């Protein structure tokens, strides 16, 4: 097999990149480890920045999102028995976010790829990258017992945190930055009416909670839990009882509960691999970086990586400008670190660290610092503007 760009991973990064490249006539093949149904079964992000919305429209896959997605002009922070609305549009000169689940984004991209007759190899095993430092890199994998070789010009490692691509960068070349948080998020998806028309991020002395949604009839909720918790220990009733103790009282009093259709615990970490490229192999999305979901940045940072690589590949194949590939990592990392910092900051402000020492500060002192931080940034319009600017997403950077 031969293609121009080999894409490892059929998550949102790989599928969105493949769709954009195809629109420019750039041939690409996606190699995915699991089945398409398995990819769709993962319940993840729910909030899309304007930049990602624009990219999905450019890729020609936004028709259902524009019909079924919800444009949100604000989010709420609830703490110390008060609720502060961050008026995203007023504070940023009109920017908003789109509430539309990652599962639906992935489904739209899969459908578009199939319709375009583009090649995706699902359930490929033993995927390996070769000769990435040369002008003739290639990928090998096994499919139905057959060993397959895919020759290409470039490889996009869109294979997530546990993928194979990042391992291709030698240890002596890469630096991995990591912060693992001492708690996780227990998430529940239910076919119930959302408890509020906007997202509510709650900080309480029992821990963090988030009320989100997927549609007017489907809700997504999270509560902070200890890393030692197991999802099977949490009955639906226990979840709803604890969630109601963390949501604002008036919201909890009227909210609709029901059976979970998905329930899982996600660990929280900040992670960045530098550089994000090695020879003709580029790391994209979770393959290069992970954020705690408190800032709704994970999927959105993946989208801005895709945008940068798409612009670069278009310059290579349309303008014959191969030199611009050296800009990829530097451009991506500037925006990635802003997203990392915001997600780390929101996580520090909104969670209960219990008696865990943080950055050498005892937990009580740290908690006072964070309480002051949250009050300072929400008490005045300038502070709320800082939160709003990051929440809607910083501008994408152009390729020089
Ligand atoms: P993905 O991990 O989605 O996709 C990588 C793909 O590569 C997968 O399909 C995998 O099967 C495949 N793959 C892996 N190894 C391979 C190999 N060796 N060969 C071939 N294929 C391979 N973000 C938010 O913004 N908000 C949220 O609320 C949120 N919640 C999350 C909850 C959880 C439990 C997790 C894990 C992440 C969450 N995220 C959230 C972040 C998430 O949405 C990611 O940012 C997003 O999935 C990134 O997409 P990809 O980069 O495509 O990586
Ligand atoms: C979600 O709806 O899954 C969601 C929304 C915002 C976040 C995290 C998760 O910050």
From TrEMBL:
**Which top class of enzyme applies to this chain?**
oxidoreductase
- The residue ranges of the FAD-binding domain are 2-342
InterPro entries for the chain = FAD-bd, FAD/NAD-bd_sf, HB_mOase, RIFMO-like
* This protein's record includes keyword rRNA-binding: no
**What keywords is this UniProt entry annotated with?**
FAD, Flavoprotein, Oxidoreductase
Pfam families in alphabetical order: FAD_binding_3
Which parts pass through the membrane? none
- The superkingdom of the source organism is Bacteria
GO MF annotations, alphabetized: 4-hydroxybenzoate 3-monooxygenase activity; FAD binding
SUPFAM superfamilies (UniProt xref): FAD-linked reductases, C-terminal domain (SSF54373), FAD/NAD(P)-binding domain (SSF51905)
- What Gene3D superfamilies does the record tag this protein with? D-Amino Acid Oxidase, subunit A, domain 2, FAD/NAD(P)-binding domain
Record bears the keyword Plastid: no
One Gene Ontology BP term is:
benzoate catabolic process
Which EC number(s) does the record attach to this protein? 1.14.13.2
Tell me what this protein is called: 4-hydroxybenzoate 3-monooxygenase
Which species does the entry assign this protein to?
Marinomonas aquimarina
């Amino acid at each position: 097999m031969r293609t121009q760009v080999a894409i490892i991973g059929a998550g949102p990064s790989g599928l969105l990149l493949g769709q954009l490249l195809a629109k420019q006539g750039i041939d690409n093949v996606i190699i995915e480890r699991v089945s398409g149904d398995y990819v769709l079964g993962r319940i993840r992000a729910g909030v899309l920045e304007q930049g990602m919305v624009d990219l999905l429209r450019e890729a020609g896959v936004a028709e259902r999102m524009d019909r079924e997605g919800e444009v949100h002009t604000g989010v709420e922070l609830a703490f110390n028995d008060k609720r502060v609305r961050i008026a995203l549009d007023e504070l940023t000169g009109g920017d908003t976010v789109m509430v539309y689940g990652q599962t639906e984004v992935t489904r739209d991209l899969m459908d578009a790829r199939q319709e375009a007759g583009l090649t995706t190899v699902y359930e490929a095993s033993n995927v390996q990258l070769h000769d990435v430092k040369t002008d003739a890199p290639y990928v090998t994998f096994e499919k139905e017992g057959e060993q397959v070789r895919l020759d290409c010009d470039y490889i996009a490692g869109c294979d997530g945190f546990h993928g194979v691509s990042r391992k291709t960068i030698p240890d002596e070349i890469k630096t991995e930055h990591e912060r693992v948080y001492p708690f996780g998020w227990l998430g529940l998806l239910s076919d119930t009416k959302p408890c509020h028309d906007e997202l509510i991020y709650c900080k309480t002395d029992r821990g963090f909670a988030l009320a989100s949604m997927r549609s007017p009839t489907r809700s997504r909720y999270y509560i902070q839990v200890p890393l030692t918790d197991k999802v099977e220990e949490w009955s639906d009733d226990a979840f709803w009882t604890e969630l109601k103790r963390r949501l604002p009282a008036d919201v909890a009093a009227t909210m609709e509960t029901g059976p979970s259709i998905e329930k899982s615990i996600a660990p929280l970490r900040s992670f960045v691999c530098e550089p994000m490229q090695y020879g003709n192999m580029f790391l994209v999305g979770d393959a290069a970086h992970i954020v705690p979901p408190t800032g709704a940045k994970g999927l959105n940072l993946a989208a801005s990586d895709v945008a940068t690589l798409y612009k670069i590949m278009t310059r290579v194949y349309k303008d014959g400008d191969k030199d611009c590939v050296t800009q990829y990592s530097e451009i991506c990392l500037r925006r990635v670190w802003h997203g990392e910092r915001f997600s780390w900051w929101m996580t520090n402000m909104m969670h209960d660290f219990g008696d865990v020492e943080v950055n050498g500060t005892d937990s009580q002192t740290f908690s006072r610092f964070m309480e002051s931080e949250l009050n300072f940034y929400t008490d005045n319009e300038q502070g709320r503007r800082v939160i709003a600017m990051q929440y809607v997403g910083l501008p994408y950077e152009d390729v020089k």
